[in-house]
Here is the input.
Amino acid sequence: MKRLVTAVIVILVLIALAVTGCTNKGLVGPSPGEEEEVVSTCVTCHTDKDTLKETATTEEVAKSEATTGEG
Amino acid sequence: MEVWEKVFVKDAEFMESTHGKVGCVICHGGDSQQEDKELAHAGVIRDPSDGDCNTCHQDIAQAHDLSLHATLSGFKSALEARGGDVSEGTPLATAIENHCQECHTTCGQCHVSRPDELEGGLVSGHEFRLTPSTKYNCVACHGSRVGAEYLGENEGIPGDVHWTQEMMLCTDCHSAELHGSGGTDATRYDNPDVVRCEDCHEDVWTDTSGNPQHEQHLGDLSCQVCHSISYKNCYGCHVSIDPEGLPCRTSEPSVMQFEIGYNPLRSTERPFKYVVLRHVPTCTGTCDYYGFDLLTDFNAVSTWKYATPHNIQLNTPQNESCDACHTDIELFLTEEDIRPDEKVANEDVIVDELPEPVGK
Here is the structure.
């Protein structure tokens, strides 16, 4: 009887795995839903003109003032 | 361009495009899960196209890696031709790194943003443009000579007829060769795909009837000899490091001149005896800051170089009549036009025998 119960449990577990999928989400990267969320973190700011106006800063590139003439 | 505009993805639909679907961090890095700006941008790669494009666009990216736009080998080959040693660790290699590398172009600086040299900035949202913008990409770098000539920005000199009459953009003529030939070219003229007038004007070569000037001169003169006008010539470029430790260069004011000389690149592809020549900024002392006499064979190459000015006109002063050209010594590069310390370098391109007057 014990063997029968054990066999039934094993079969049920296997069926459950087959139905839900055996993948480990942590190993294969974000699901589409998670990816959308991740992407929107960048896009939220970079598509918002007002936010960018408030937060964007100039990256100074030092150029010589001694340069003259055309390049 | 305002600083915020440079990074403004104005069309959110970009995220649905092929490149957009890849996701920001795959190309640009950073940490998209951070709310804080500084933390989110830690390790961000502003221009990831210097390598990443190879994943999908392998053929083009590999060709581009060898192209003049990427390698700037035109600078190196010009210095080497004058006896310069540009190998790693040499003074000239340092000079190239300090003064030439800023013109290096990545895929993105033509197809996505303005060039770094112009302080970057997205051209059209984050759109990947198959065709670079004439204004924001091509002319942004090639502005002082080619751009100004083509668009008619030199005072008193009209723009190129391809622009003024047809509004043709750079990429209407220049396309595949911009990604290089797939080999290592010393100059743009080495590329077999370089633009030729006859690519469009084939009939000029196949049917000269009714055009005595074409009948007489086709093959002897480059097209620009008859159809170009005054263009910009540069002199006396010197590179150095300023007191602040920043690379700098000085040059003399450029001069608008038109000079016909002997062809320094005469070949099967360019059989012309006469071409127009442009003076390059290089002089004997260009690199003297980095060491004395680094160009040990300066006279091996002329300082008046084969040129294809972008200010083409149907009618020009020199093609008004036969003698408009044949009797005008000012059109030709003669010994009087050459600076004393450049006479030997240019002896092969100086016109020593002017054409005979025709009488019409």
Notes: Chain A touches chain B at residues 35, 38-39, 41-43, 45-47, 49, 52-53, 55-58, 61-71 (CB under 8 Å). Residues 37 and 54 of chain A are 23 Å apart (CA to CA). Residues 21-39 of chain A have pLDDT under 50 and may be disordered.
